[in-house]
Every structure is written in C-alpha cells, then in structure tokens.
Amino acid sequence: MLNTSPTAGRIESLWDDSQSAGMSESELLLYRSNLLGADKRVTNFGGGNTSAKVTETDPLTQQEATVLWVKGSGGDLGSMGRDGFATLYVDKLDALKGLYRGLEHEDEMVGYLPHATFNLNPRAASIDTPLHAYLPYAHVDHTHPDALIAIAASKNSRELTETIYGEEIGWLPWKRPGFELGLWLEKFARENPKAKGCVLESHGLFTWADTSKACYALTLDIINRAIAWFEQEIGDKPVFGGARVEPLAETDRRAVASRLMPEIRGLIGAGESKVGHFDDSSAVLEFVGSARVTELAALGTSCPDHFLRTKIWPLVVPLEKGAASVDQAVADLGAQLDAYRSDYAAYYERCKHADSPAMRDPNPVVYLMPGVGQVTFARDKATARIAGEFYVNAINVMRGASSVSDYFGLPEQEAFNIEYWLLEEAKLQRMPKPKSLAGRVALVTGAAGGIGGATARRLLGEGACVVLTDIDADALEATRAEFQDVYGKDVVRAVPLDVTDEAAVAHCFAEAAAEYGGIDILVSNAGISSASPVESTDLSLWQRNMDILATGYFLVSREAFRLMKRQKLGGAIVFVASKNGLAASPGASAYCTAKAAEIHLARCLALEGADHSIRVNVVNPDAVLRGSRIWAGEWREQRAAAYNMKPDELEEHYRKRSLLKRSVFPEDVAEAIYFLASDRAAKSTGNIVNVDAGNLVSFTR
Ligand code: NAI
After folding, report:
1. Does the annotation mark 674 as catalytic?
2. Mutate to test the pocket of ligand 1, among 497, 530, 544, 630 (most ligand atoms within 8 A of CB)
3. Same CATH topology for 17-234 and 250-429?
4. Tens-digit pLDDT profile for residues 654-697
5. Fold adopted by 441-628+665-689
6. Model's pTM, two decimal places?
7. What is the secondary structure of 25-69 as a DSSP string?
8. What is the CATH number of domain 17-234?
C-alpha cells in the first residue's frame, strides 16, 4: 500500500545557533516563525501564527513596557518579515477583558485592538491576537500541522490527545477563534501549569515555552510524536477503504486533465474568469482512487483554514472507468455543477443569519477525479494552487483521522459561521481590486523575441497568466526565468514550439489547458523577415515565409478556436502582422505576401469567431528596431544597403520617415496588443491598428 502522505517522516530542526546568536527577541521570533513556516507539514500557507511577549521601551514615557509581538493579519509565517508582526501593549490587552460583554459580542473586541497598538505599528492585529495575549507564557506557537489536525478532526480527538501526550498537551473543544477562545486558552493554561500546549478540536495546535528556541523545539517535537504515532497505528493497513480506481499513466492523467479543465472552466467562468491548477501527486491519487472518496469528501474539510480556501465540499467527477468515462463525464458536467450550485445555495439558505453577507460564488473550488488527480479553480493561479495545497492538507487529515477513528468535518453551521463571518467579509472587501486581466490566460508565440517579450510583460503586468512559446528553446528559457523573477512562478509557463508543426501546436494548447485550464488570449506573433528580389527568391524562401507567417498563424489560431469554443467563454486573438501586409515593399515579396495573408486570415476569423464572442484583430508594427531579433541580423544590413546607409543609421532613418517623427518600440506595439486583447476592446473585431508612428502608405482604407 502506498504510504506517500506528507505527514510521513520526521521534521528536522533547522535552528542554527550561529545564525540566531545576538538576535533581539523580536528577531528571534521572526527567525523561529520563518523556520516553522518553511515546512508545510508544520503549517499550511498563511496558516498559524506565532508570538513573543517582549520588554520594550515605550517611545512616549521612556518606561519599560511588556509588548506582545504577534503575527498580524494576512501574511505567511514562512515568508513574512519583521513588519508582518503587530505589536500591542500587554497591559492594554489585559484591560480589554473589562470591556468584554460576552460571546455574542466578541466580534466587537476586534475593534478595540488598534487602541492597544505599541509604537504606531501600522500592521493590523489579527483575530487570533487574544489567543496569544492571555497565555501566561512568553513564547507561543499556533500551527496547523496535518498530523495534529488529523487528531483534532477525529471523533474521539480528546482521547487520542491524551493517549499520545498524556498531561503534556491539553485539549479544548471547537470554538471559533476570537476573544472567547483566548479566555479559554488562558484558563486552561492557568489550571494546568504542567501543560506545554493544547490541541484545539477541528482546528490545530498551540504550544508555549519560555524562549524562542525552546518553543520551536517543542512545536517540532509535538508534531513529530503525532507523525510517529500515526505511522505506527496505520502501518501497512489500507487507507480510505482501499483502492478502487487505479491511477492512469502519467501522460494519460494529464491528457484527461487538459480535456476536462477547459470544460469546467467554461461552466464556472461566466461571472468571473478563473484559472485552474492540476495536481496528480501520489497523496491525491491515493485519495481520489479510493473506495471512500465520495463519502469522505462529502463530510467536508475540517480546519477553518482549509475550507475557507477549498469551500465546504469538493466535487467528485465520476471517472471510475478511466479514460473511457471521460466523454460521459464531460456530458454530465453541466448537470453535476447545477446540482452542486443548488446544494451550495441550500447550505447558504439553511445557515444564513439576518446580517450575513450575500451568497458568494456557488461553484466548487476542488474537483476530484478518480484515477487522474485533483483540479482546483480560483480567480488567479496562486489562489488555485494554494487551494489545491490546502485540499492536500485536508486529504492528509482525513487519511490520519479515518484510519484511527471516525473523521468528522466541522458542523455545517460552524463552517458557515466562519465562511460568512463578518470579519472575514471585511477582509475580502479590503482586498485590492483585481487587475484588468486577472483570471485570464494568454498564449504568446515568438515570446522570446522583442515584440513577443514586451507583450508577455504587458499582459503579465495586468494579471494574466502567460504561456510563452518560441522555437528558440534557450532564449525562451531565459525569457521565462526573467519573468518568473518579476511576476512569480505561478503565472509564467514556457513551452518550446515551432508554429509550423501541427502536432506541436496541439500539444502546446493542451499544456496550456493542463497548466491553467484553458486560454482566453492568443497573440500570434512568431515571425521572421526576409528580403529578396522576386527573380532571385527561391522556392524554399517563399515557402519558409508562407510556413511560418501564413500557415503558422493559421495553425495556432485554429487550435485557439478549438479550445475557446470548448470553453464557451469567447476569446481574443491578436495577430502581429506588419505594415508590409498592407503596403507593398520593394524586394520582399515573400514576406509581404505572407503578412498580407495573415491580415486576411484575421478578417476571415473575425467573421467566423463573432458568433462565439471570439474577437480577432491585427496590430501592424513597422520598423521596431530596438529589442527585435529580426533587426539584429542580416535583415538590418539588407535594409541599410537598400537605403544606402550604415546599419546603425537605420533607426534614425525610420524615425524621420514616419509622419510623427518618432521611433517605435516593442512596448508601443505591446500596448496596442494589450488593448485589443483586453475587455477595453470588447466591441472591436476585424480591426487593424497600425503602430508605426504614421506611414501614409499603410493607412487603412
Ligand atoms: P524577433 O525576431 O525579436 O521575434 C520573433 C520571434 O519569433 C523570435 O524569438 C523567433 O525565435 C520566433 N520564431 C521564429 N520562427 C518561429 C517558429 N517557426 N516558431 C516559433 N517561433 C518562431 O522579432 P520581432 O520584431 O519581435 O517580431 C515579432 C513579429 O512582429 C513578427 O511576426 C514580425 O514579422 C512582426 N513585425 C516586426 C517588425 C519590426 O520592425 N520588428 C515590423 C513589422 C512586423
């Protein structure tokens, strides 16, 4: 039996005395927090928080004050900096107890927290602040380790906690984080002075100690003991009721994902564009292929962090018969999603309060595919990926809990109270407005070149995910690495592609579907240039222009049409043609004719695409010398020779030749492409935009 759970194996201490020597208490807290957050077995992304009660000098009175440094609202332990901590006077926090009017008023306590701020620290204190503030210990870790949540989400979690830890670690029943839970924790710690921590039912772990180093060591020790206990208990026993559907081969799994993801994306993306993430790790495959997947998935996730990201339940796509079930699954998807949405609406209606925020998007986030893996969809790639990671956490939890006990999700009303918590809603409202291409996926050909690269950068800057493609694999990889540094690794993918290769084009779009769920924007830009009087143009040169420029543009747009039509979300295609496609240019008939073919192909596709909301437009650059690889080679020399000048005089020549007397840069072309690809041009199709600083011969007429 597979034992691939990430809960397996011990967590090694990363504490290095030579690094921590000389650090202040707040620096030690940051060091410890980053170490804890570095291992997802300790805590999930953004989950958990840490604190230290530190003696500081009050900037106003110059007296000593005890200050709580505690991870503030938002942020992630693994990547946070010192500015991620809120700082609050402990005595002022203590004074809040006098203002507390009881459980039904606990949310109002959040409003008092800013009054306890030390040193004008702008970092907002989180809802979890009271959970740290009142514990009578200097250092407190609150983490969400899968192994501990597996205990916390077992039906007899109290007994399990006692069995594993005796009196060392206590147990408190489920309580939504807030002021009341802070008081519960304090009471527990004062009544149980020997306890070193506490399991919170359906939630996670608290541990405390007198120094940062001791607290870190304790947290790891408690987690490692849980991991060891589960390993011993589960051993080689089958988990999740044993396997029912064997995983398909890796390439088949990916093929099914790329088939299904655009269908799902289309059915859930009409209101808000969504990006997908596919995971076929062994932990996922073990769960989705198991006998109990449907039953356990229906119980919902447990830790609040989990279902805030994953929604209360996933959707199980019936793929029991492997690849043979795919067509049926596609056919049934619409009805399945309708059923999910009405179940979600019914859950909202059952649980809502008079002041609950309006129902949010009722579509599932997590899609479980037996034999294939798991797909998650969210408004951007990072959110989709993180939701997937959280569901893997939930799988680990279910694996442990269901093997040693009965797993139970959070009661529905409690889950709702967290999901639609007014404080949670306020957090959502504070989030910045999404960028104009958030949730969109673009594919750019010739992306390692000047105009393609500038275009990818422009689209990435507007929040799109971009699949970079180019025939030059080395230059493509360099471009990918550069963009990854700036925009992060979630939003950029690179697939080497020769646009004249029919099979490679199909593969490239399938990759885009498996990586992101589909595409919304195609920028067909890959190109070459050539110059040759007609009588000396040999057939191979003619054919090369036709292949790359005319046929290449046909192949990528045909595949884009196929994918966009399956998604039924419309789409935008932009062709980068040329001034030479409109205006004849001497000694370049093959290039000019192929570029003219591109322009006319765009017109034809605009006509065919309109009924499907697929817009097709053209941008015509001219004389974009800087950044262009075309202009780095012999084309530049040929053009310079044609005008009887030196190659480095050419840019000035073109500038002077233009009506506006300005040079054209790749970024200028990218701007027009972005416009036509975005909703700003929602009502434009079949259009041509010249970006050539004005050239009478290419005026459209
Ligand atoms: P560039 O040479 O910098 O970029 C073109 C990219 O296309 C290169 O990275 C190249 O490796 C790639 N490519 C070539 N053949 C390919 C194939 N078979 N499959 C996939 N990728 C391939 O050139 P630039 O200036 O960025 O040109 C982009 C587009 O703009 C081209 O279609 C070009 O014809 C057009 N254009 C450029 C003008 C200029 O002055 N730079 C003027 C008018 C049009």
Report:
1. no
2. 630
3. yes
4. 999 999 999 999 999 999 999 999 999 999 999 999 999 999 99
5. Rossmann fold (3.40.50)
6. 0.93
7. HHHHHHHHHHHHHT-TTT--TT--EEEEEEEEE-TTT--EEEEEE
8. 3.40.225.10
